[in-house]
Amino acid sequence: MYLIDSWGQRIPAVSGGASPTFSGSLALSFSLPSDVAPGTYTIAVRLSDQAGKSSPFGFPNGTPMPGGPVTLTVA
Q1: What separation in angstroms does the CA of 26 have from each of 16, 22, 29, 74, 75?
Q2: Which of 2, 12, 22, 46 is the right S-S partner for 18, CB 3.0 to 4.6 Å?
Q3: Distance separating alpha carbons of residues 71 and 4, to the nearest angstrom
């Protein structure tokens, strides 16, 4: 998962995975990187399967996040 700032810069926030038999909703919590400045960020994710195929969502000029952009405001 990445945070995308207003300039389109990617800030890695978290990586990881789920079991090969995962099914259903995925909940994710993370700590903000210490160098994240106050502002509004868009959340982008890249989902990959065991075959190495991936689908990015929410990145600039890419496939939109299903249901619309997900944002995070850092105060």
Answers
A1: 12, 9, 10, 23, 26
A2: 22
A3: 9
SS3 at position 71: strand
Indicate the helix (H) or strand (E) that contains 39.
strand 39-48
Per the structure block, which two tokens stand in for 16?
Answer: 């990881």
Burial degree of 43 (CB within 10 A; 0-12, 13-18, 19+): middle
pLDDT digits over 29-75, tens only?
Answer: 888 888 899 999 999 998 888 888 999 999 999 999 999 999 999 99
Q: Provide the 10 A C-beta neighbour count for residue 44.
A: 22
Q: pTM value?
A: 0.79
